[in-house]
Amino acid sequence: MSDVPKTHDGHSSRRPNMVFVSRDPKESFADAKEVAHFSGTSILMTSSIRVGMRELLPSGALLIHTESLSGCDPDELFHHAKNGVPMIAVGESPAHCAEHFARGVCSFVHPDNLFDHGNQVLSHATGHREGMEAADALLDSALPSIGFIGMRARRAIAHALLISNTYAEGKGHVVRVAEIVRIMMEKMGENKRQIAIAKIAAALHDIGKVGIREVKYKNGKLTPEEFKVIQGHTVAGARMMNTAITEMDDPVGREILGTAREVVYGHHERPDGKGYPEGK
Questions:
Q1: Given this model, what pLDDT does residue 51 score?
Q2: What are the C-alpha distances in Å from 186 to residues 131, 195, 203, 244?
Q3: Does the pTM exceed 0.85?
């Protein structure tokens, strides 16, 4: 397949503010033309990240189909993530998309919505930059008590914090939970290192909700079936942690995510055994 990109924005002199990397960019190009016409979005379709990033505006977003993510060079993905380029996964399963946060993915979009909401996708770019500042602030406060962590592992954890905060119960929920955990552990006399690790892990507790946004924000009482969907966020989040741990070779990063996996999986269990996912 040719790596020559195809762009449509109605103004050939403009640089794209959205790059979509797909194994077959031709298949999506017709839809791209339509959204570009109605939203003013400048889209570049390509099968090569390197080609697309040469032209992408600094304020733009990089979208990658999940089928293409596995074939991307991890070092190249990390380079763009490190430089602040928001990477949005395009795929059928939000939870599966989010499993790639260790590669730099900060959000997701369903293929059916990709070209219906071009401006909304670009809003992710703005939210990404603001969210990364908050994630970095939390890590800056915690990591000095934990020990050295490589930049790649730090970026992966920061992206996980960004996803968790985006799909949490409400603004400030993640920060409040992390602070409550810190206070409780200090009262228990735990050492500073364990408190710092637990603080990060607590901030990741709701990351599995990335795939259940529609049900979570439903008005009114949930049906039994919908509540089962909500309960699934614990297992889905733990699976995301497992994927990241498998790909991470930084020992401190693996320790943090290992603790987070336990918190994500078990934060709805109860002393009386009636919680979930293990409870009856």
A1: 78
A2: 27, 7, 17, 29
A3: no
Q: What is the DSSP letter of 256?
A: H
Length of the chain: 280
Read off the pLDDT of residues 110-151 as tens digits, 9 standing for 90 and up: 777 665 555 555 566 666 667 788 888 999 999 999 999 998
Residue 232 CA to residue 243 CA, distance in Å, equals 17
CA distance linking residue 1 with residue 15, whole number of Å: 23
- For residue 144, CA distances in Å to 82, 178, 194, 199, 200 come to 20, 16, 12, 13, 13
Of 155, 170, 1, give the one whose Cα is nearest residue 85.
155
In the structure encoding, which two tokens stand for residue 86, read together? 């928001």
**Rounded distance, CA 16 to CA 153, Å?**
30
- Sole residue written with tokens 């290992």: 258
Cα of 131 vs its chain's centroid, Å: 11
Q: 178, 200 in Cβ contact below 8 A?
A: yes
